[in-house]
Amino acid sequence: MVRNVCFVPLILLALMTLTSAAYVNIVEPYNVTVHNNSSVFIGKAGPGQTFYVTISSTTQNSTGYVLNQGWNKLVVSSLPSGWIAQNSSLYNQYPTVKLTVAPGAIDGPYRFDLTAVNVGNYSRVGSVTFHMYVNVTPDVFQLSATPTSISTGIGQPAKVYVRINNTGVSDSPFVIGMKGLPAWDSNSTVIALHHTSQSFVYQIYAGEPGVYHTTMRVSSVSSPRIYQQSNITLTVKASIPNDYAAIGEGTPAFPIIYEPAYAVMYLINLLLNR
């Protein structure tokens, strides 16, 4: 009897160990391995932003045998109010769910639950449910615009280098715009991938001389609450170097006989400004 009492708990412990052998490898938005009832904090997302969670279909069964198609589907089993989710399709190597934060979500941490499923449990791995936490905040990127002081000629485009450091989990597009220039209303839409820092070129110009104190605004298409600004001073004036530089930005409206001379003047300007 003593042997039986000791043997039963050992069997139960072994069964518990075997049934918990299945795991889930999360590959996006970053790599981490979870088990049933695990909790994971994935970072930041802005109100209204869309992001994705991707897992590998690979897992193992209770005997430790590795299954390349263990997880056939990833589903959202619990979601905050107002959020939108789309479950993964069936039988992909990397099942992916799509989640969109409620546009009116207040700042703070939110939890949602995902379940990796072996459809029909044909591989005898059951399912694994894990809890994910994300911090909702408009502070999901950093902006750097250079140079902040530019001198250029009348009608001559000037380049601003816009660096977006996307610290959130969403790949939602950003819109680059400028206020403070006369008759200027040109926006550029770019995508800075999550957890990356990327640089973009944005051109501005003015057709009249003057000193313009402008404001560059970069915002997410997902919500007007997600934005950053940078002040840039643009000085526009007529000068020989600026006129020479302007030649290289387009085709001069002069007879073709003069074009070689203007090309030489443009090259001279480039050498002087090295």
What does this structure look like?
This protein is mostly beta strands. It folds into 3 domains: 2-136, Immunoglobulins (Immunoglobulin-like, Sandwich); 141-237, Immunoglobulin-like, CATH 2.60.40; 239-274, no CATH class. 15% of the residues lie in helices and 43% in strands. It is built from 3 helices and 19 strands. It has helices spanning 2-19, 240-247, 259-272, and strands at residues 24-28, 32-34, 39-45, 50-55, 59-60, 66-67, 73-78, 84-86, 96-100, 108-117, 127-136, 141-146, 149-152, 158-166, 174-179, 188-190, 196-204, 210-220, 227-236. It has a 5-stranded antiparallel sheet with strand order 2-1-4-9-8, with no helix packed on it. Strand 15 (174-179) and strand 16 (188-190) form a beta hairpin. Helix 2 packs across helix 3 (259-272). The protein is elongated and about 80 Å long. Residues 1-19 and 249-258 have low confidence and may be disordered.
Cα distance, first to last residue?
92 Å
The largest sheet, given as strand count, sense and whether it forms a barrel, is: 5 strands, antiparallel
Strand % is 35-45%
Q: What would CATH call the homologous superfamily of the largest domain?
A: Immunoglobulins
Output the helix-strand order: HEEEEEEEEEEEEEEEEEEEHH
Level-2 CATH architecture of the largest domain: Sandwich
